[in-house]
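Reopening: structure tokens for the PBG complex, inputs below.
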Amino acid sequence: MIERPRRLRTTAAMRRLVRETRPRPSQLVLPAFVGETGAEIKAMPGVLRHTVAQIGDVARAARDAGLGGIMLFGVPDDADKDAQGSQAWAADGILQRGITACREAVGDELVIMSDVCLDEFTSHGHCGVLAADGRVVNDETCELYARQAIAQAEAGAHVVAPSGMMDGQVRIIREGLDGAGFEDVAVLAYSAKYASAFYGPFREAVGSSLEGDRRTYQQDPGNRREGLREALLDLAEGADMVMVKPASHYLDVLADVAAVAQVPVAAYQVSGEYSMIEAAAEKGWINRRAAVEESVTSIVRAGADVVLTYWALEVAEWMA
Ligand code: PBG
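Re-run output (same inputs, fresh job):
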């Protein structure tokens, strides 16, 4: 026998030497929720909804841990929701106030990102405005996304991240930002976003009002080629970074996108991915730390330059 791959696995030091994938804190992004009131999110043990007064501390902790960024989601009170989701672009909307609090806390020392989508703000819970027959109207929704992106840029976001899966959303947001003088605000496009059951816990986190599903705009889980198509379209529309979401069950799509993208590629380890490991660990069925580290490593190995994960702070601590 000449080839003995096990030689390179003999000691921990040897394995460390030859390890191909080494996730770093600077490529991790912490998703965080900001609302009028704080709360524990039952379906995501260990994840909190923060108030505007608290969210600056979260940003400071992310900066101090050496993370790459924070991705903010706004959770308005139900009374502030309407059919259009107008709090999404109100200057004093909850997400805009959260962005400003983070920017005041950390300035340019952490990349502040915000979700561009109407679902948290609409009374019906869909990601866009509805026609009389209940369909989500594409082009009108994109115009509202542009207004929302501008409001977020005005509030201090470095990166806006459209997650609504409307066709043409990246181009209209880019034009809107440029027209308002925000040429330097980057667009991270949720390009290949699938209609996933793994968003379940997130719906509790944002107090979603959704009935039904998002299958007329988010992608069908069976489609691999289409994920690449969506990413290429977003690049042609001017996306500065592209994302695949969820992460762990879509590593093939992630690898496809990473193979061709000439921009950084992000992957979002979503709420269900988080909660499943937490639940199994709590039952004693899985080694929590090992499972978390393996999941993040696998996402990077598949091609992610940037990983959004609810474990970002803890993983960064382990890495240090
Ligand atoms: C939409 C949005 C969702 C998530 C991020 N942005 C929910 C959805 O599409 O239903 C899910 C994130 C997660 O599950 O962690 N604004």
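The CA atoms of residues 9 and 243 lie 33 Å apart. The chain has a mean pLDDT of 97. Marking as resolved unless the reporter disagrees.
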